[in-house]
Specification:
The complex is a heterotrimer of chains A (293), B (280) and C (385).
Chain A (H helix, E strand, L loop, with lengths): L1 H29 L6 H18 L4 H30 L4 H22 L15 E4 L2 E4 H23 L1 H11 L1 H6 L4 H27 L6 H16 L4 H21 L5 H15 L14
Antiparallel strand pairs in A: 1-2
Helix pairs in contact in A: 1-5, 1-8, 1-9, 1-10, 2-3, 2-4, 2-8, 2-9, 3-4, 3-8, 5-6, 5-8, 9-10, 9-11, 10-11
Chain B lengths: L2 H29 L8 H18 L4 H23 L4 H21 L18 H20 L1 H11 L1 H6 L4 H27 L9 H14 L5 H16 L7 H15 L7 H9 L1
Helix pairs in contact in B: 1-5, 1-8, 1-9, 1-10, 2-3, 2-4, 2-8, 3-8, 5-6, 6-8, 9-10
Chain C lengths: L2 H17 L8 E7 L6 H20 L8 E7 L4 H14 L4 E3 L4 H14 L2 E4 L14 E3 L4 H16 L3 E7 L3 H16 L3 E8 L7 H8 L5 E4 L3 H13 L6 E3 L6 H7 L7 E4 L8 H14 L5 H18 L7 H11 L4 E4 L2 E7 L10 E3 L4 E6 L2 E4 L2
Parallel strand pairs in C: 1-2, 1-3, 3-4, 4-5, 6-7, 6-8, 8-9, 9-10
Antiparallel strand pairs in C: 10-14, 11-12, 12-13, 14-15
Chain lengths: 293, 280, 385
């Protein structure tokens, strides 16, 4: 049973990690909590589902296309909502409240378009391969999800550390004004960040949809709460922290079920979030800045 | 339409405005110190359950139930407020959100609270004048507070906490006071609402409820006491007016929230603006 | 905009609310308060569809003594406060004869007292929790209680499969699944079954593997899953991918073609008890299924079958009374006529049964219907004999 629970923890954790990655990136660079990340996550799942079911596209097209759509949605939110607030130098609560509004809007639209029922990808969309050691089972899907989210994380970390764009992003995280003075196109990089973060969120949505067969207008909300917990655990704004936080959260949930009781699965993760903020607001791994890459 | 059936049809909306007004004022207190806390729904839940359990399990009078509904959340607020209010900004918001979820899950897993089925058959003791009286008293209290030294301290903290502390304001104590008073008002609102809706369940006090309370205060604006009350009234009546929109009813809610933040950053109630417009 | 115009606008917005009740006096108005938006709308919408289909059919055949039935449909969003609002709106502003709904048992607990205080019928078609009809003599339901269905299901599962131990997984933050769990646990104890382990999940959860892995290690003979079909299908799929082979036993929520559609092979061997049997060959049921498919393009589920029948039950009662035009006395005579009404519809034979009530207080009426027990074989619901 332990091996199986470990497998469960890793595959759950990798989706949390992917979701948290985009969420933390926006905070690190733009300095705002984008609470519409859950809504973007949900729309990413729905767009690729629509491509697969309505236009019978193969998954390898629908997946990047879904990410692209989610990215555009994130860009749209940045341009329509976050940018005016930035220009006004609004209080940090304002983006939170506005993105809550955007989430309500997105949820309601998804419900109008797709209905309130759970939707799922057609069976056998993904090869149904299975590996087994003794009692422990591992599907190709689980492996792919874990590999894919680790890969996307590695790309992000590499981008932040090794590219000119990453350097610029880290400079912006350090000081927006100075970066602007240095000639860094701050506004364009904000758009870029929102786009990338949303695309990652969309990818997490598609993967959740593939592995757990449940796409619904309300899937974003519980994921958002988990994502917040993961990001706080790892340290807000810290890219590696978000990923580790995601895995840590996945593991702690699975082991809360194993050792304690499933009644308190969610209470455990939120309690962890709560205690972490009291003990180390900067998170387990973070220093609260993107400069750590 | 005669008065009785008019009252039957609309009493819930009117009492709802009163209860929501109290909730909006409860978050207004912390917002006017510049603190975004999302725990008010949880405090309301604690108050509602505590008050309802007193009425259902004991033969104590309604006033005792309301007293418990007010004091228990206030006590909880003191206990979590002391460590929590060291946090600022988004960290405080996230921590209070986590606290709210933990409260909801605990309510869900306790036997005395009835779990997912919640409490049913709470005696309907709340009369319209209980709500009106509480609202008037709370408004008077908040207005008096705003005019006092305490109110100026709130403003100083909101503008610049460090400066306020340097000026000799006990910022920690003042913030805790606002947080605890807000919790007490939210708890009282919960106690009152539990005794007119007959039923309670943990789902009523989750994240959505916290967001609803926040929305009311933001829509109305935190420039003065009328703001949150206006926000509460509008958001209580709006769903009734938007019935025709069916599936897209919630979309209107979300859109309003976005629009207010973008185009009316101070909320609907801005005393200065009204005065200027009225004079010309 | 100054204050004066703001006030005028507000008044203009509110006025229609006050005078809404003046329109439509001739039709027989029946209120429908169901969750049409929000998560509960996946039950509320099929329920409304069932009512509308039945209303169309009844009106096409001349209505009640030549007077058409007019449904006044309102969205209660699956929330208790909204259910109360909607009930009051329908009862006092629209002045409907009676109200169907709300969708969830929890909302019925909130709205039911209004009906009993104002003396009109509150008729639930999807509320299966215990205690609903104890609220007062004006509460009716056509949905058999889980406590009537589950013992029958379990008994035939035990006798066919010789199971002795069971693991349970259910949603502990939802009134429907929680009360389903309570009934199952009591029924398991009554029939001397061993409960190997109990696991829970919460609304919106999609990953059930940690809980299932834990149950799997206890090697129960069967998995009891008082869940709704959506979560149920995912739980089955995840259980099979973990290598669990146990049959599932479910409650009211499992009775939907969607379960088989979504879970596919994973649903094989599942045992369900339910008042509606989709493959029931009776002419009433076959007519209902084809009419529903024609009108909505999707197969009906249990919830739409129950609401479809419920409107016919009320129509039967209305056919036996003469409406006077006085709202209060008409509401009362409908209330008095309903208990005697029997009907054969999509869900089979139906009659009301007086509820026991707590402390001998007057109570309402429950459904007196025998459940079907069936097992899923080769992607079909097959009756268990």
């Amino acid at each position: 049973m332990w091996e199986q629970q470990l497998v469960n923890a890793i595959s759950l954790g990798s989706v949390y990690a992917l979701f948290a990655l985009g969420f933390t990136l926006v905070f690190g660079v733009l300095g705002v909590i984008n609470l519409s990340h859950g809504g973007i996550f949900m729309w990413g799942a729905y767009t690729s589902l629509a491509l697969v079911t309505w236009f019978s596209m193969p998954l390898w097209i629908a997946f990047p296309a879904g990410m692209l759509c989610a990215g555009c949605l994130g860009l749209l939110i940045d341009i329509l909502i976050l940018k005016p607030l930035r220009n006004r130098q609004a209080n940090h609560l304002m983006p939170m409240i506005a993105t809550i509004g955007a989430t309500i809007l997105m949820t309601s639209l998804a419900q109008g378009v797709f209905g309130a029922d759970n939707q799922r990808y057609p069976a056998n969309l993904f090869p149904d391969l299975e590996f087994q050691w003794g009692e422990t089972r591992l599907t190709l899907l689980q492996i792919s999800i874990t590999v894919l989210s680790l890969l996307l994380t590695a790309v992000m970390v590499w981008m932040l550390k090794r590219t000119r764009m990453g350097l610029a992003l880290r400079a912006i995280a350090e000081s927006r004004q100075t970066s602007a003075l240095l000639g860094i196109p701050v506004e364009r990089l904000f758009h870029m960040t929102s786009f990338m973060a949303a695309a990652l969120g969309g990818a997490a949505g598609i993967l959740i949809g593939l592995s757990f067969n449940a796409i619904s207008p309300f899937m974003g909300q519980s994921m958002l709460h988990k994502g917040i917990a993961a990001v706080i655990l790892g340290g807000l704004g810290d890219v590696r922290g978000a990923v580790l936080g995601g895995f840590f959260l996945g593991a702690s949930e699975v082991f809360a079920v194993t050792f304690l009781s499933s009644d308190y699965r969610d209470a455990f993760s939120f309690g962890l979030l709560f205690l972490m903020l009291l003990w180390r607001p900067q998170g387990l791994f973070g220093t609260g800045k993107l400069r750590e890459g | 339409m005669d008065w009785v059936s008019w009252w039957n049809a609309y009493s819930d909306i009117i009492l709802g405005i009163g209860i929501n007004g109290l909730l909006a004022l409860s978050i207004y207190l912390t917002l006017s110190c510049g603190l975004l806390t999302l725990a008010n729904a949880a405090f309301m839940g604690i108050g509602a359950y505590a008050g309802a359990l007193v009425s259902m399990q004991t033969s104590w009078p309604f006033s005792v139930a309301l007293f418990v509904a007010t004091s228990l959340p206030a006590t909880a607020a003191i206990l979590i407020g002391i460590p929590l209010l060291r946090l600022t900004g988004v960290y405080l918001a996230m921590a209070t959100l986590g606290f709210g979820e933990v409260v909801r899950i605990i309510l869900l897993n306790m036997d005395i609270t009835g779990g997912a089925l919640g409490l049913n058959g709470i005696p309907p003791l709340t009369q319209w004048w209980h709500v009106l009286g509480t609202l008037i008293l709370t408004v008077l209290l908040v207005v008096a507070l705003k005019k006092s030294k305490m109110g100026r301290a709130f403003e100083a903290i909101r503008e610049d906490e460090t400066a306020a502390r340097l000026m000799g304001i006990h910022t920690d104590r003042i913030k805790l006071f606002a947080f605890v008073l807000g919790a007490a008002i939210a708890g009282l609102a919960g106690g009152l609402s539990a005794h007119y809706t007959f039923t309670l369940s943990p789902g009523n006090f989750g994240f959505e409820a916290a967001v609803d309370i926040l929305t009311m205060a933001v829509l109305g604006g935190i420039g003065g006491v009328p703001g949150p009350l206006m926000g509460a009234a509008i958001l209580t009546i709006l769903p009734e007016l938007l019935r025709g929109l069916q599936d897209y009813r919630m979309a209107a809610n979300g859109l309003i929230l976005v629009m207010v933040v973008l185009f009316l950053p101070g909320g609907l109630w801005q005393p200065g603006r009204f005065r200027k417009r009225m004079s010309c | 905009m100054n204050i004066k115009t703001s006030c005028r606008l507000l008044m203009a917005g509110l006025l229609p609310l006050f005078f809404f009740s003046l329109a439509h006096a001739a039709d027989i108005k029946i209120g429908v308060a169901e969750a049409l938006t929000g998560p509960a709308s996946q039950y509320g919408i099929p329920i409304r569809n069932g009512f509308e289909l039945a209303a169309d059919e009844i009106n096409a055949q001349g209505g009640i003594h030549g007077v058409p039935i007019q449904l006044v449909v309102e969205d209660e969003r699956g929330k208790k406060e909204e259910a109360i609002n909607v009930y009051k709106k329908l009862a006092f502003r629209d002045k409907v004869l009676m109200i169907f709904g709300p969708t969830l048992s929890n909302s019925m607990f909130a709205a039911g007292p209004i009906a009993n205080a104002a003396h009109f019928v509150a008729f639930g078609t999807s509320n299966t929790a215990t205690g609903i009809t104890d609220m007062g003599p004006y509460t009716f339901r056509s949905s058999p209680m889980e406590s009537d269905v589950v013992p029958v299901t379990l008994k035939s599962a035990i006798s066919h499969l010789h199971i002795r131990t069971a693991g349970i997984i259910y949603g502990n933050d939802d009134a429907f699944t929680k009360s389903g769990y309570d009934v199952f646990r009591k029924s398991l104890e009554d029939q001397h079954m061993v409960i190997a382990g109990t696991e829970t999940y919460s609304r919106g959860d999609v990953d059930f593997k940690p809980q299932l892995t834990k149950l799997m290690a206890l090697h129960p003979d069967a998995i009891i899953c008082p869940c709704l079909s959506e979560e149920g299908a995912n739980i089955m799929l995840q259980a099979r991918s973990l290598g669990m082979k146990q049959p599932f036993i479910g409650g009211n929520g499992f009775n939907s073609p969607q379960l088989i559609q979504n879970a596919g092979k994973a649903a094989e061997g599942t045992i369900v008890g339910s008042p509606w049997f989709s493959d029931n060959p009776s002419p009433e049921n076959q007519h209902f299924i084809s009419a529903y498919r024609k009108k909505y393009g999707t197969p009906p589920n249990q919830f739409s079958a129950q609401s479809y029948d419920a409107l016919y039950i009320v129509a039967d009662a209305l056919n036996h009374i003469a409406l006077s035009g006085n709202l209060n006395s008409d509401r009362q005579s409908l209330r008095d006529a309903l208990p005697k009404t029997t009907h054969i519809g999509a869900t089979g034979k139906f009659a009301f049964r007086p509820a026991h009530g707590q402390d001998k207080k007057p109570a309402g009426y429950d459904a007196d219907q025998l459940p079907f027990v069936y097992v899923i074989k080769n992607g079909q619901f097959v009756l268990m004999k």
